[in-house]
Structures are given as C-alpha cells and as structure tokens.
Amino acid sequence: MAEALILHQDCRSGNCYKIALTAALLGLPLERRDYDILRGQTRTPEFLAEVNASGNIPVLQVGTRFLPESNAACWYLAEGSALIPTDRFERADMLRWMFFEQYNHEPNIATLRFWLTFVGEANLNEFQQAQIMPKRIAGEAALKLMDEHLATRDWMVGQHLSLADITLYAYTHVCEGGAFRLGDYHHVCRWLKRVASQPGYVAMG
Amino acid sequence: MAEALILHQDCRSGNCYKIALTAALLGLPLERRDYDILRGQTRTPEFLAEVNASGNIPVLQVGTRFLPESNAACWYLAEGSALIPTDRFERADMLRWMFFEQYNHEPNIATLRFWLTFVGEANLNEFQQAQIMPKRIAGEAALKLMDEHLATRDWMVGQHLSLADITLYAYTHVCEGGAFRLGDYHHVCRWLKRVASQPGYVAMG
To answer: Are B41 and B120 within one domain?
Structure first.
C-alpha cells in the first residue's frame, strides 16, 4: 500500500472498528484520528469541508483522497488478500452479507446500542422511542438468520475468514449494549470466538 | 456466463430492477420469475426453503445457487465489465455509493414509495406512521448529497457509468412515488437522463 492510510474514527463505533480490525489482520499500518460524535466533532465546518460532507465517520483517508462507508473501506484495504474469496460467486456472496450487515443488522443492532448505551433511553426523542420495538424485532431476526446460517458452517462465506465475518463481527460482539440477548444465539457465540482467535486480531477501542 | 441466470423478482421493486438493468446494459440473458410481495408470495414454505430463508427478493439464481441482496447481484453480473472501475480507489468508491444507497437512500426513499404508492398511507401501522417524517428528512438529505455530488461531475464515480449509477438510479427515478420532489434536484435530473440514454437501457417493470 503506497499511500498513507488514516482512519478518521470514534473508537466506540463498530463501523470504525471493522476497518481497524481489517487493517490489523492484514498487518497494514493505519494512523487513527479520533473524533467524539456525541460532541459534534464530525459536524464542524472543517470536517464537512475536508473529510466528509455528510458528517459521518468512519472515513478512510488514502493519501489525499477520502473514502466514507465502513464496508467500502474494508474492501479497499483487503483487495488482493485472503480476506476476499477468489471464487466469483463467493466474492459476490461475501458482498451479500456485507449489504445485509448495513441494511438488516447495523441499523437495528448498532442503533439500539448507540441509543441505549451512549445516548440514554430517557434522552431519545419521540421518533426514536417509536423505533425501539421495530428495531428490536428486526435486529433479532438478523441475529437469528446468522445463527441458522452458522449452524452448518464455520464462516459466513466459504471455508475461510472473509470481510463478511469481520464486518458482521463488529456490532454482533457488542450487541448486548443494545440489550440483545447474545447467549440465545449459540452458533453465533462460537463463531465470535473463532473470529477473535485469528492471528493479528485486535479488540475494539 | 456459463450458468443460467434467473431473477426472482417483483417487477415493482427498484431493487429487482437494478439487476435487470445491469443485465440489460451488459447484454446478459436473464430469465425473470415474478412474485407478488403484497400477496405473500415470497413467504411461502417453498420460497423460504428453496430461494431465500429471509423471504426477501430480489434473489439472483446462478445455476443452482442463490444470491440475495440486489447490489451483490449487480456486482456478480458486472465483474470484469466496464461497469466496475479498474482503478482500486474508484472501485472502492463505487462500493461506497452502493452502501450509501442501501443505508441512506433505499430505506427512506424506497420505503416511503412502497408505503405511499403500494400499501396506502391509511393502511400503515403506528410504527410506520411514526417513521414517515424521519424517513422524509433522511431521504431528502440523501437526494441533496447526490445533487451536490453531481453538480461537478457526470457520473457518481470516475468518468463513466458504473454500478454506483445503476443502483442509485433505480429508486431515484421513481422517488416521486414516495412524494419526494424530484424537480428540486436539478443535477440529479440531468444525471437520470444520462443514465436513461445509455445503449441497452431498459425501463422499469
């Protein structure tokens, strides 16, 4: 990787952690710059002008270019490595689980964790309050689908660890912060241990 | 493409349309099998057992294998074609917009279109009613971000049409079905015409 890699992050974010974990498993040097999203540090005029106009993190900086969206950043880092399957169908199937993660998993599990652990239930507005129950139901459905999938295999796709595992690991392993009952999902729990035992693994934070 | 391609679809779905449009632009033969999601035809025991355990469409069938998630299916079809940039950063940047589409765009714009055009506002439950306003705001933010991005370029990524354009086109061009004011987004409107004028383009439905 010829250009310097800088991760603009909040270290409590699983989306940021995915990128750090991918870099660690690949042995890539990654500079990390911290922002506190609860203090609006990603909504400053400087951040919006220079890093990401939408005010979101993570952003992976590659030299002078900026790449938002956690799963796209993981893809960028992992191209050509063993974290992306060489088989065409498996590669698309890996992306399938990464889109599932952003559509069915993160908006429910990560959002409830953010609301309940960092914002505080008493501080939620009426729109957020109304979304707790549908997000609970949808998050449980996502965990159940993963658990059934992992009942007959060690990894989400193919025979090896891939970005599908890394990106889904990030918020699954801290889902109790959103009051999900992780212990109900036995196959998921065994898979979490499998991911955490990989050489180069780093913990969140 | 050696194996037969079958799209399990509801022809009103923009997520299904993305895949059909990608195949059409690439000149790939694609058999289409129709289901009516409003009549529960993707929740039958047969569908859940054979096509997709989560009961969602689209699913791209490749021979005897099944690939859910619209953007992953588009990727599968387009690998090795001009619809995916050859530059590593641009390729990741294309995925960035495809994840943006599934996280910031589709859950707001497609969902409001589905609720208002196909379900009917009077038939929404209280959780859905409470989400109309936040989805309106988030959908407008997504369209505004696209409009600003397209103010200085013809295509979402690089100098050519890519999957970023195709996947974002699908629900943007019918966003008025969700009561979004498409005419407010001038650069988006010009870009929609650009996409629709591509050789091989097919309309939705």
So the answer is: no
* Gyration radius from chain A CA atoms: 17
Closest residue of chain A to B138, computed from CA coordinates: A54
Give the CATH number for residue B58: 3.40.30.10
Number of continuous H segments (helices) and E segments (strands) in chain A: 8, 4
Among residues B178, B197, B167, the alpha carbon closest in space to that of B18 is found at B167
**Which structure tokens are listed for B110?**
């497609």
Write the single-letter amino acid at A112.
L
The answer to whether residues B69 and B33 belong to one domain is: yes
Q: Give the number of other CB atoms < 10 A from CB of residue B149.
A: 17
Q: Supply the ipTM of this predicted assembly.
A: 0.97
Question: B1 pLDDT band (50/70/90 cuts)?
Answer: low
pLDDT in tens, B105-126: 999 999 999 999 999 999 999 8
Q: Are residues A69 and A138 in the same domain?
A: no
Number of domains in chain B: 2
Distances A47 to A9, A41, A44 between C-alpha atoms, Å: 12, 8, 5
Q: Which residues of A touch B133 (CB under 8 A)?
A: 127
Question: Which is nearest to A96 in space by CA: B69, B7, B91?
Answer: B69
Range of B30's domain?
5-78
CB contact under 8 A, B72 and A89: no
Q: Smallest CA–CA separation between A95 and chain B, in Å? A: 5
- Substitution target in A43, A96, A150 with the highest count of B β-carbons within 10 Å is A96
Please say which residue of B52, B78, B104 terminates a domain: B78
**B127 close contact with A: CB closer than 8 A:** yes
pTM of the model: 0.97
Same domain, A92 and A176: yes
Tens-place pLDDT, residues A63-100? 999 999 999 999 999 999 999 999 999 999 999 999 99
The position carrying tokens 């009561």 is: B179
Q: Is residue A201 part of a domain?
A: no
Residue B33: strand pairing partners: B8
CATH number at residue A122: 1.20.1050.10
Q: What is the average per-residue pLDDT within B55-69?
A: 97
Contacts of residue B53 in chain A, CB cutoff 8 Å? Answer: 145, 148
Identify whether residues A104 and A189 lie together within a single domain: yes
Is residue A202 a part of any domain in this protein?
A: no
Domain boundary among B26, B55, B78: B78
